[in-house]
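Hi all, long-time lurker, first post. I run a small reading group and we've been trying to get comfortable going from sequence to structure in the token notation. Rather than ask abstract questions, I figured I'd post a concrete chain and ask someone more experienced to write out its structure so we can walk through it together at our next meeting. Sequence below, copied exactly:
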Amino acid sequence: MTRTRVLIVDDEPQLLRALRINLQAREYDVVTAGDGTTALRAAAEQHPDVVVLDLGLPDIGGLEVLRSLRAWTPVPVVVLSGRLGSSEKVAALDAGADDYVTKPFSVDELLARLRAVSRRRPEPELTPAVRIGDYEVDVAARDVRRADGSGERVHLTRTEWRMLELLVRNPGRLVGRRELLRHVWGPTYVGETHYLRQYMTQLRRKLEHDPSRPRHLLTEPAMGYRYQP
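-- Answer (accepted) --
Happy to help. Here is the structure in token form:
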């Protein structure tokens, strides 16, 4: 079972350490960031399932971080602050926060908020299992197995899954490079086309029968990529 990945953003090292220890003890994967710049990079690279975001950050304001996230991802965000008056709460919710917790707080309260916002997150549209080369790919279950019945599994990273998922959910359609980069890494990475080449090479090596002559994961030169059933 995939563990829930939480990105915690706060400039208090003691709080980050305490939350990391407590959440890891409860079977969460935890990523931490001490400022807004690091948080945005971590969100793009680590693909958290939920974000805990302090508003009082040393470089970029928490609301600005929240708006940047909302420009490309629907990930649930719980705002964390010791100065949340009614106007700050309204501003945070209007900017896209799903909930808020006021310092000081208990870990049990935070966990309850995380569970609540995760339940409210819309379920992705189900995609039937597809065949790529010698493998059957179940996107919903994030599971790849040989189609010969042997049960042999192939491990894909979170980034590989996100890239493959967008292609498989759009069979036969050209998915542009900018759309892929925005979906997988976020809006600040739309010029990093070498990322796409690197990860597509990895996917073909793992899934295509002949990676040098792919039949399913196709490149449209200078435009993007296509999943061909």
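A couple of things your group might point at:
The two ends are 28 Å apart (CA to CA).
The mean pLDDT is 87.
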